[in-house]
Write a structure and sequence with these properties.
Layout: H1 8-19, H2 25-32, H3 36-48, H4 61-68, H5 85-91, H6 99-109, H7 116-127, E1 143-147, E2 152-155, E3 162-172, E4 178-183, H8 188-202, E5 208-211, E6 218-220, E7 227-228, H9 230-239, E8 242-245, H10 255-269, E9 277-278, H11 280-296, H12 306-314, E10 330-335, E11 341-344, E12 347-350, E13 359-364, E14 368-373, E15 376-382, E16 390-391, H13 399-405, H14 409-419, H15 421-431, H16 437-449, H17 456-468, H18 474-483, H19 506-509
Parallel strand pairs: 1-5, 2-9, 5-8, 12-16
Antiparallel strand pairs: 1-3, 2-3, 3-4, 6-7, 10-13, 11-12, 13-14, 14-15
């Protein structure tokens, strides 16, 4: 770094003590708390500038500075090429890119370029010309949340393989108290559980929570009116906190969270980088141990530690914890098809058939699937994990569908019993046959419904005829009824045949 220059007030004091009081350079250095060589340098600069004591009254500080530190005039061939500072500034935002690396690349292209200290000095001067940063003011109790860029390798007890664990970071804006824990992913359940555990750790709910624009928290980012994830919004309502997403690609909106992430990466994760962890519980225990050190450590610029500031400033402003735990739910927007069953997690749930063609919301918890239309619940089912199956509430069906669905094999068999014993036997034989149960039930339903157009005794007799000839089909029974085919009454087979020229009798065949 370039040597820092003395203030103009101290330079004038050096010249006064030298030329007016006649003190030695060593004595002046002790008085002004600078080295004697520095005193000698400034006295020599004043002599070369033709100055004497007292200084002229019309000599302002800017002119005096220019006379003491004249800008050296270099010949054109000796001009040092200036780096492209916008490019340097953009490159420094990349992960792992440092000023030292960019300076080495600059010197490789320009052998007569600036040294490293002058390179940094010129960059700082250029950066001061950028857009100024507005200081953010936060109220007690406000919190900021983010995930670290670093992950930890953890052995998964279930599979035995090493997996990456994401690190959730929660920080209170005023006390700078930090809470962190490890998750397998940044999914919605992990995101909400991280908030719940952080609230318990600090003893309350922050009135305002500032978050980044990750998908678990924000479904549609917008500078002025972002849309929160419906489940996370329900969690915020449950806890009573307000959620404010930052602007996209604006880390300054949550500078405290960025600082907390840096502290967690540097003081918590880095010391644990060579430790083998078996499961998230072991890693979270180690993180809690390291965080206790961070939160109890005194902050030099404040003179207090984070835990003391939490008790003094943030905790009185926190809202009380909710009485019951929030139940994580998934949301989905779907259009009701013609069969009035909507799909969620590969299972189909019924809604009232009057909603066909309309859009409904699905809210699913671990145990219940609710369906809402216009914010009003229109259906509720126990959650099922049978893939491809259906859950149907008969009240959701049209009258004709409900009437058809009520014709179960048991009811069909009971109706056949009321028609007659032969009909019951016919239905039982079809249902027990090799055909598909649903197809067999439909054929039996057709036989039973024949009793609506024909006398029950005629249907029963037709069933006896069909069963006798082995025609176990609905169409066979229907044809027998339409053709009026009959069999001799049961029990007449042993009676003598009537006398007729066409009846030869058994003797003829012997």
């Amino acid at each position: 770094m370039a040597q820092a220059r003395m203030s103009m007030r101290k330079i004038k004091e050096v010249l006064r003590l030298k030329w007016s009081c006649g003190l030695s350079n060593r004595a002046i250095g002790r008085s002004c708390r600078v080295s004697s060589s520095t005193v000698s340098e400034y006295v020599q600069r004043a002599k070369r500038a033709g100055l004497s004591w007292p200084l002229p009254d019309d000599l302002d500080e800017a002119t005096l500075w220019e006379r003491l530190f004249p800008v050296p005039v270099r010949p054109p061939e000796a001009c040092i090429p200036m780096p492209d500072w916008p490019v340097v500034h953009k490159e420094l935002k990349g992960k792992g890119v440092t000023r030292q690396l960019l300076w080495r690349e600059y010197r490789a292209a320009h052998e007569n370029g600036f040294g490293y200290s002058q390179f940094c000095e010129h960059y700082r001067t250029w950066r001061q010309l950028l857009k100024p940063t507005m200081r953010q003011r936060h109220e007690p109790g406000e919190a900021m949340v983010d995930y670290t860029g670093l992950t930890m390798r953890v052995m998964d007890p279930a599979t035995g393989e090493k997996r990456k664990a994401e690190i959730f970071v929660f920080s209170l804006a005023v006390s700078r108290y930090i809470y962190a824990e490890a998750h397998w992913s940044q999914d919605l359940p992990s995101w909400i559980r991280g908030h719940e555990h952080a609230h318990r750790a600090v003893g309350g709910v922050p009135p305002l929570t500032i978050i980044d624009n990750l998908r678990s928290g924000v479904s549609r980012a917008c500078r002025y009116d972002p849309d929160l994830n419906p489940t996370f919004h329900a969690f915020a309502v449950h806890c009573g906190t307000a959620v404010m997403p930052t602007r996209v690609a604006a880390p300054r909106d949550k500078a405290n969270a960025e600082n907390a992430v840096l502290i967690v990466e540097r003081d918590v994760l880095a010391p644990l980088r060579n430790v083998d962890f078996f499961g998230l519980a072991a890693l979270n225990a180690a993180i809690a141990e390291r965080l206790a050190i961070v939160n109890h450590r005194q902050m030099a610029h404040i003179g207090q530690n984070r835990l003391a500031l939490l008790e003094e400033l943030d905790r009185p402003a926190l809202l009380p914890l909710p009485i019951r735990r929030f139940e994580v739910s998934d949301w989905k927007l779907v259009k009701v098809p013609l069969d009035y069953h909507v799909e969620f997690d590969h299972h189909f749930y019924s809604v009232p058939y009057t909603l066909i063609g309309q859009t409904v919301e699905i809210r699913a918890t671990a145990d219940v699937v609710e369906l809402l239309a216009g914010g009003t619940r229109v259906a509720s089912h126990p959650r099922s994990h049978r893939r491809g199956d259906h859950t149907t509430d008969p009240a959701h069906m049209p009258e004709s569908h409900r009437a058809h669905a009520e014709w179960t094999p048991e009811r069909i068999a009971a109706e056949a019993e009321r028609i007659g014993p032969h009909t019951a036997a016919m239905v039982a034989a079809i249902l027990e046959g090799p055909g598909h149960p649903r197809k067999s039930a439909r054929a039996c339903l057709g036989i039973v419904r024949l009793a609506r157009r024909h006398a029950p005794e005629h249907v029963d007799e037709a069933c006896r005829y069909a069963k006798t000839v082995g025609a176990l089909r609905f169409k066979s029974v229907q044809h027998i009824l339409l053709a009026g085919l009959v069999l001799p009454p049961e029990g007449d087979a042993n009676e003598p045949l009537p006398a007729h020229a066409n009846v030869r009798g058994a003797a003829y065949y012997r």
